[in-house]
What does this fold into?
Amino acid sequence: MPKIYVPRYQVLSTERRAFSDQGGGVRIRPQGSGGGCLLQAATAALGGVQPLHYWDFTTDRALFNGQDVGVLSNTPGWSFTRATVGSALTAAGVVTQFASGQLRRTNRGALIEGARTNLFLNSATGGTQLVTVAAVSHVLSFRGTGTIALTGASVAGPLVGTGVNNLVTLVFTPSAGVLTLTVTGSCTNVQLEEGAFETSWIPTTGAPVTRNLDLLNVASPRVAYPLGLFADIDRSSDSGIGSVFFEVDNNTNDERSALVVNAGDLPTVTMVDNAVVQAAISIGAALPLATPAKYAGRFATNNVQGARGGVLGTAVTTATLPVTPTFIRFGEIASTGVPCFGYIRRAAVFNSAVTDAQLQAMTA
It folds into this structure.
């Protein structure tokens, strides 16, 4: 069944009514019939540079081809899947649960992560239990003021809480066998997962629960080179490998332009043509976790550049362009193998080779 968009309406200010409404009535204009105030707000947020497409995940609003389409999911070609429950944090650090198939969007942004399984049962409030584990890296995490001691397959730790809303973590590699987790005091949002870094809390009851990969993209993006990309991000985990936060591609990894955080935690502007890296411009120092950052890139023939926080990188002046994009991706690459493990706050596409000054303005 096709989606039906019911336009929102906005009352114009008294000053603007005066030009066309001399009778004292209220004139209204539908949002969605044009760029309207969202286009103005997006342009202002981007340092005066007008985007072709713009998504604000903190407020659930989108522009597409300069038109206000309303909520994010009204974007033409929009697709999101995750066939399991999950959770995300608000900007204030409050844990919010989401149903299967629901984008994990809060006022902190949209959280995109890879698949993980919480092995800890009844994880909302921790209780002592035995868990069968493999001899691979695991992460134990919780919020609260209590303690979890490890015996059996591992004697790492103990993991001691530091506050009701503070997340504490312990990375360890057990022997294959049975791990005893002894809980004392208050431990909430408990998670035991295989991996080298922690991810968002997965609610469980009487059995382990897997949170599947978040997949978010837009088909038929109506963009062509030269173009510009912008992303405002907030990393929640350090995967230790390069991760894509925003990308356009032809549904392969061989022809793409992307905004990446590389294995060294550096925001990086990347372009690949015919499976050959044409540019990889890293800008500034390593990006810490839980720290919003804005960066952007220009993708043009023999003219690739990036900026972060108003500072330019080192331009690449010998580069060939990928083929025309057919997908826009948020927090992933075409193979879906490298999710960003972080929050995307805002993203934009520009239908021109944005200038150095514009890159600086939109990321300042």
Notes: Residues 32-113+212-364 form a domain with the Jelly Rolls fold (CATH 2.60.120.200).
